[in-house]
Amino acid sequence: MNKIFIVAKKELKGIIKTRSQMLIGIFFALWFSVMTAPVVKTVEESAVFDQFNNLIFYFVLMLGIFMAYLFSGKVFFDEKREGNIETLLCTPLSLRQIWSGKVVGVTIPAYLIALLAAALITVIANVFSTQMLLPSPAIFLHIFLVVPAFIAVAVGLLGFGHFLLGMRENQILNITIFFVIFLALFFTKTVISGGYAVSWVAIGAMLVVAVLLLALISYLTRFLSKERIVTTIP
User: Fold this and answer.
1) How confident is the chain (234 residues) per 10-residue block, as mean pLDDT?
2) Helix (H), strand (E), coil (C) string for the chain
3) pTM
4) What per-residue confidence (pLDDT) applies to 141?
5) Domain that includes residue 81, residue range
6) Domain count of the chain?
């Protein structure tokens, strides 16, 4: 476990030093929170609480996954493209330890930005609302358990793909994922205006799915090999 945190600390420092990526994350946190203002202002007072929770549910999760995608590019793709991954491969660390450390190192800053978005959405929504708005208990569970779990799944899946595939395939993978995220953001209005309230069952099901996916990806890392990674370095 200590070895995993050594890798995580290395990746975390690298992400923090890349100020441009951190600023992008902060910008999107502000942007998503500002987008809540017109929704809160125009929705009927009887439905404002459900709409507010829908905003938290959707925006915080999407931002966390987007930041996971953004940070993973530096931690996995750039490191492989520049050949720096060979240094880690020469250490006594196993591929699973390297993968786990990178997942932890990316998940932490991505989740912190997601938390910032949750706080900003709450503050701005209350500025434009006539009543006090706070996330429901189910949404609190979503923020503190489901969101970091899905961020870890996104990072883990991206990392597994970068280790398994060649550079050309990884470029295609990155473009595909970005397109999917863009589509998800494009249909934001449809998702958050559906007139439904997020339930405990939905949150619980999402948590179970995230845990199972993370366990599956972790298991699949045993089929990775250092030789395969080295041969796909340009």
Assistant:
1) 85 86 87 72 65 85 90 82 76 88 95 94 82 87 94 92 80 76 61 64 91 93 82 70
2) CHHHHHHHHHHHHHHHHCHHHHHHHHHHHHHHHHHHHHHHHHCCHHHHHHHHHHHHHHHHHHHHHHHHHHHHHHHHHHHHHCCCHHHHHCCCCCHHHHHHHHHHHHHHHHHHHHHHHHHHHHHHHHHHCCCCCCCCHHHHHHHHHHHHHHHHHHHHHHHHHHHHCCHHHHHHHHHHHHHHHHHHHHCHHHHHCCCCCCCHHHHHHHHHHHHHHHHHHHHHHHHCCHHHHHHCCC
3) 0.89
4) 94
5) 2-231
6) 1
